[in-house]
Amino acid sequence: MILNSDKLDRFTWGTEMTYCTPYLLQLGLTKSKLSLVWIAGPLSGLIMQPIVGIMADKSTSKWGRRRPVMVGGTVIVSICLLILGWTKEIVAAFVEEGELVGQSQAPDRNRRNLF
């Protein structure tokens, strides 16, 4: 079989668990909002898995019922992981500097008071 979805799933979740939390915290996401990010995955799975399952069951593709869904999911997840790596640059293309909420009022943590 070309795709081993179990290994791909473990790779994706391993990557997210290892790198996503520190990266999102570095981008300025608060811990309370970070919890919303982590709950979004299971909630979207709760909604999307039955929908995708029904679509796959009705599929009459010459490649089978599940394979097109697996390939499509692999492509989407790969693109999203690549986008995650360039989050700052993508946001900077749409938002002017200093326009982000809380960015202009944030204290400079590297600056030390002399007195």
Report on the structure:
Helices cover 66% and strands 0% of the residues. With 115 residues, it is an all-alpha fold. It has a domain at 31-94. Helix 1 runs parallel beside helix 3. The chain is elongated, with a radius of gyration of 20 Å. The model has no long low-confidence stretch (mean pLDDT 77).
Give me the Rg, rounded: 20 Å
Query: First CA to last CA: what distance?
Result: 67 Å
State the helicity in percent bands.
55-70%
The DSSP helix count reads 4
Order of SSEs: HHHH
Structural class: mainly alpha
For the residues shown, what is the average pLDDT?
Answer: 77
How much of the residues is beta strand, in percent? under 5%
- Described by the principal axes of the CA atoms, the overall outline is elongated
Number of strands: 0
Parts with pLDDT < 50 across at least 5 consecutive residues: none
Main sheet: strands, sense, barrel: none
What layout of secondary structure does this protein have?
Layout: H1 5-26, H2 31-57, H3 67-85, H4 87-94
Helix pairs in contact: 1-3
Task: Pick out its properties.
66% helix; 115 residues; mainly alpha
Summarize, please.
By secondary structure, this protein is mainly alpha-helical. The protein has helices at 5-26, 31-57, 67-85, 87-94. It has a domain at 31-94.
